[in-house]
């Protein structure tokens, strides 16, 4: 009750006068003050909040623009806030980078979502080739006898046709699996062989698909903002999403063997524990999660 | 009736808990069925490692639904979940001692697909007519659209009631 009352007064009254006072004292607007004080994700995050909660219609709109219009909107902000490009030369550059990060994050989610929504299609040659590529990367010395085969279980699919295992993650699940196997081949081989452990083993491919879901839902809930704002000085792309997925796969395997679960039946319990751990790391505004091998 | 006796009556009739095991082949739609029952989003489902559990309220019962992964590799673990099961949903397990007399409901899922076999054909294929030692029911449904799922659960509640009395 008291807190919400305070928030109401702060939002509607104090915030305005605080900003006015600071502006008179420093001769700078809130955006400029943020650039002076903060760096990295904290800077981008504060700029994003300042723009979103601004009462100025032009400023409110900029967090929702598309990447190609960023330059135009930076000029609009400078006009609106009376910022002299000669007196504050860095403003334009800093503002542009922040806007590219903010709009880029939103675009990345839309891109990832559109790939996820595409189901695996056996009639699509590209999909089939990608699936065969996964087999060859993971099993370089063993030939797959047939497209429909019990052998798929050796890399952790459930049945004799991997097609049915992609489900809610669509082709995104397969692209992630291939990306990890291609860019971290020796780690992938190591994790695959560990996943065949008689007691602590798990199904490599379907756990991979499950971790695609984790990466996807973290992106969707905006939990990846600090990480991506720190990690990518500009527009985050699919590549960065895949990189984060690789981090999850590598770290999950380590986590699983450290925890020594009684059996695979406890998977969801440990998955949730791991999920909480990652969410905790992502709350730190200096976070940048990279796979270190 | 005095207030006290009303209170006593309320206290003596707590929600009965029912344990339901959902078993079936991989990619049968068990998790989708579970999420449909709990009115959750079904668009992000991935294959189940281990199990999922959800509790739903239905007709005065608390249904604890266990959705166990269908992958061949983990089927040996199924028997760990057989203790105290009230309703069972697959035919292969009828000979399991721990599950004797447990009513069985077979969901003929994916009826939204044109290629789905009708419930009558499945009943014949599974020789359901030869089951004599328990009540059984086959229910066609689509976990995707939710059609038939509630009908199945109504049958569950009715038969648990009969069994427990």
Automatic annotation (TrEMBL), chain A:
PANTHER family (alphabetical): ELMO DOMAIN-CONTAINING PROTEIN 2, ENGULFMENT AND CELL MOTILITY
Protein name: ELMO domain containing 2
GO terms for biological process, alphabetical: regulation of defense response to virus
GO cellular component, one term: membrane
InterPro entries: ELMO_dom (IPR006816), ELMO_domain-containing (IPR050868)
Pfam families, per database record: ELMO_CED12 (PF04727)
Lineage: Eukaryota, Metazoa, Chordata, Craniata, Vertebrata
Domain ELMO: 126-282
MF term (GO), any: GTPase activator activity
């Amino acid at each position: 009750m008291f807190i919400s009352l305070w928030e109401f007064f702060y939002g509607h009254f104090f915030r305005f006068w605080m900003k006015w006072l600071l502006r008179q004292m420093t001769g700078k607007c809130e955006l400029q003050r943020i650039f002076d004080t903060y760096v990295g994700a904290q800077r981008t995050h504060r700029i994003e909040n300042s723009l979103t909660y601004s009462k100025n219609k032009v400023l409110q709109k900029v967090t929702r623009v598309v990447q190609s219009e960023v330059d135009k909107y930076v000029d609009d902000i400078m006009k609106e806030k009376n910022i002299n490009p000669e007196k504050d030369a860095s403003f334009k550059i800093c503002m542009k980078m922040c806007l590219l990060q903010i709009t880029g994050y939103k675009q990345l989610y839309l891109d990832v979502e559109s790939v996820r929504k595409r189901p695996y299609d056996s009639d699509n040659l590209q999909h089939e080739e990608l699936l065969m590529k996964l087999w060859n990367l993971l099993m370089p010395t063993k030939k797959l006898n047939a497209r429909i085969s019990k052998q798929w279980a050796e890399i952790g699919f459930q049945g004799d046709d991997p097609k049915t295992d992609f489900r809610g993650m669509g082709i995104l699940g397969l692209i992630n699996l291939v990306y990890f196997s291609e860019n971290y081949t020796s780690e992938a081989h190591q994790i695959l062989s560990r996943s065949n452990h008689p007691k602590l083993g798990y199904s490599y491919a379907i756990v991979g698909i499950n971790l695609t879901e984790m990466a996807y839902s973290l992106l969707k809930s905006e939990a990846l903002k600090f990480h991506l704002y720190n990690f990518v000085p500009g527009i985050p792309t699919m590549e960065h999403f895949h990189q984060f997925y690789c981090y999850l796969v590598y770290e999950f395997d380590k986590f699983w063997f450290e925890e020594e679960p009684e059996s695979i039946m406890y998977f969801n319990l440990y998955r949730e524990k791991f999920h909480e751990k990652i969410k905790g790391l992502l709350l730190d505004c200096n976070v940048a999660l990279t796979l270190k091998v | 009736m005095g207030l006290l006796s009303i209170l006593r009556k309320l206290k003596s009739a707590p929600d009965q808990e029912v344990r339901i095991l959902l078993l079936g082949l991989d990619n049968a739609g068990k998790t989708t069925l579970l999420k449909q029952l709990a009115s959750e989003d079904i668009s992000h489902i991935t294959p189940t490692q281990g199990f999922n559990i959800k509790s739903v309220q239905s007709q005065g019962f608390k249904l604890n639904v266990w959705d166990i992964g269908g992958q061949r590799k983990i089927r040996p673990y199924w028997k760990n979940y057989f203790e105290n099961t009230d309703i069972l949903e697959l035919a292969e397990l009828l000979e399991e001692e721990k599950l004797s007399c447990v009513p069985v409901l077979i969901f003929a899922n994916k009826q939204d697909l044109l290629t789905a076999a009708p419930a009558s054909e499945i009943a014949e294929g599974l020789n359901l007519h030869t089951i004599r030692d328990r009540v059984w029911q086959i229910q066609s449904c689509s976990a995707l659209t939710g059609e038939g799922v509630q009908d199945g659960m109504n049958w569950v509640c009715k038969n648990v009631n009969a069994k427990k009395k």
